[in-house]
Write a structure and sequence with these properties.
Length: 431
């Protein structure tokens, strides 16, 4: 089936039209956006500018997609890649850089100058220090999708950060400008999804390259398994972008956008959502409201989240609220029992004894799940498996409850974690 040109598709959606086409397209194929700008659509895109002295590319896609993406780029232009800009150091953006280096060597070109914020290298070192932990996290986050064949995430060499990933050769702090072939690229550092993020203004083309500041889903600003995100700084960066009155918005995921009104409306919607969550959460924190109450009280309007560029299908507002608490208030949730809690096994055993055995807990958890109260059902079934970790009955029920909850969830992060819990209990049943 033929796909609509990405600029036409984003215009259709932002202008109020209806479509069933995906906004995040993984084809590993190149698409002309203008005579001098292309996008290779992958799990993480490669945005490339053609100049009189070679190419400037933003991001490299991931390890398993890098070669295909570079091949697609070569079909668009045989020119050398002079600069490879990392919008940030996430591996779906940098993992394919080895393919750029290999292509340059095969063509007899110099390897591209890799440009990034100085914290990218700090991230790379942290990835090496926590390699196995990060592989586990991403396997769980993406719901069991193979790291090798799924999203271009992780290397085939058993390393989270592939061994052939190129490290930055030009680093900067707050801002950096360079010129290639008469085209200026103005780079700016702002915190958002990461602490090492770069966005770029290309004045000759009135274009913004924004990496993961815009992804055509609700902002990934609360990821429960990853390091701190920065919602208010993210919103501030989006407001800065609005002042450029860009004609093109080029993100690393989702669709490019053309037209100043469309660009600024999309940027404004994302900024407003983050600003609202921060404002309401901090107000409640200032009123000494515990985290548990804030999580269940702070919401965004449903109609806001129903916009295709705002759907919470990856991250979701509840997780962002938790991240705001962590950023401003630390890890303690103001429940005194949770400051120095007992082991979960001890709590499970005590609850089981009070209930008259785990069979009663299992039955109640299953009844709650049948009623659709998965929050309470999951909490109860955890008591049963914590009280008797080898119970086949408890793990059988746990697998069913978490699978049902996974199927009822909307965001990929929730689905992945609940699917992992179901699979964990299934593994216990097969032991």
């Amino acid at each position: 089936m033929s796909m609509t040109h990405p600029l036409e598709l984003s215009a259709l959606i932002l202008d109020g039209g209806e479509t069933d086409e995906r906004t995040n397209r993984i084809t590993n194929q190149v698409v002309d956006l203008t005579d001098h700008i292309s996008v290779v659509e992958s799990f993480s895109h490669i945005i490339t500018f053609k100049t009189d002295d070679g190419l400037v590319s933003f991001d490299s896609s991931g390890a398993s997609t890098g070669v295909a993406c570079v091949d697609a780029l070569r079909a668009w232009s045989p020119d050398p890649v002079r600069k490879l800009v990392y919008t940030h150091g996430h591996i779906d953006h940098v993992g394919g850089s080895g393919a750029f280096a290999a292509d340059a060597a095969a063509q007899g070109f110099e390897a591209p100058d890799v440009v990034g914020h100085h914290a990218v290298a700090d991230r790379f070192r942290r990835y090496d220090d926590t390699n196995t932990f990060n592989l586990h996290i991403n396997n769980r986050q993406f719901g069991g999708i193979s790291l090798k064949e799924g999203m271009g995430i992780g290397g085939s060499d058993g390393r989270f950060l592939p061994a052939d990933a190129m490290w930055p050769t030009t680093e900067y702090d707050d801002s950096h400008t360079f010129e290639v072939g008469g085209v200026s690229f103005e780079l700016f550092h702002d915190k958002g999804e990461t602490d090492d993020h770069t966005w770029a203004w290309v004045p000759e083309h009135k274009a913004l390259c924004v990496g993961d500041f815009v992804t055509w889903v609700f902002p990934n600003c609360g990821n429960p398994q990853k390091v701190q995100r920065f919602p208010l700084e993210w919103a501030a960066a989006l407001r800065k972008m609005q002042t450029k009155n860009a004609d093109l918005l080029l993100g690393a995921h989702g669709l490019p956008v053309q037209g100043t009104e469309r660009v600024n409306r999309l940027l404004g919607d994302l900024a407003t959502a983050l600003e609202t969550l921060v404002k309401e959460t901090v107000e409640m924190m200032n009123n000494n409201v515990p985290l548990d109450d804030i999580i269940h009280a702070v919401k965004l309007p449903d109609d806001h989240l129903q916009r295709k560029w705002m759907n919470p299908i990856y991250d979701e507002p509840e997780f962002v609220v938790r991240n705001i608490w962590r950023l401003y208030g630390g890890w303690w949730d103001q429940n005194p029992a949770q400051l120095k809690p007992p082991t979960r096994g001890a709590v499970g055993a005590e609850v089981a004894a009070l209930a008259g055995g785990i069979d009663l807990i299992i039955a109640r958890a299953q009844a709650l799940a049948d009623e659709g109260d998965f929050r309470l059902a999951c909490s109860l079934i955890e008591f049963a498996t914590q009280a008797e970790p080898d119970s086949q009955a408890a793990h059988g029920a746990r697998a069913e409850i978490y699978q049902a909850r996974r199927n009822s969830e909307y965001s990929l992060m929730s689905k992945g974690i609940f699917a992992a819990a179901a699979n964990e209990s299934r593994a216990k049943l097969s032991d």
